[in-house]
Amino acid sequence: MPRHDYNFFAGQRISRIEALSDGVFAIAMTLLVLDIKVPMGEFHSESELIAAFWPLMPKFLAYLLGFMTLGIFWVGHATQFKFIARTDRHLTWLNIFFLLVISLFPFSTGFLSEHIHFKFAIGLYWLNIFLAGLAIYIHWIYACKAGLLNEGMATEEVFKAIQNRVIIAQSLYLTAALLCFINTYLSVAMTILVQLNYALALFFSAKESEVAEEE
Question: Percent of the chain at pLDDT above 90?
Fold first, then answer.
């Protein structure tokens, strides 16, 4: 006998989940640039204008960092949904909690740009990355355990590749964050290098390449 209670059939349209997710990512990415303000005032020489522009460099650095972070998580999220054939109420809410963490990045990025010399700002940004990584990891594990994947595409190889990618990335981000005890700029630079690695696929195994091509 079919079930007709609300909790059974609520939140089962993948297209709505993907549309909401893309919207949240797009807004979060756009909000990042609003932290960069154009220098105001009267400038009577090139040197005065350059002197007013130069303090914005940490903000541009944080903007690059934040935009790449969101881009990497967007690609990871899109990759998971490449293999998810259907959803249920629990997976839908796991996705919403993931988006909750994603929507915090404009704040943590802005906080970092204002206080880039402080270890606490690095730690707060890393915490945002960690929570996003944890959320997307739980999202993937639940989809696999609940049998929501496309059986013809989601092989054991794919499952492990996506799972290991999250674990390895989080380990590298933690290493980068710990470098703040040496120098905060070194920590930010290491984080950007980690992101460039994942964005440009600088270090790819053959198996990872196959999964990436399917993205």
Answer: 60
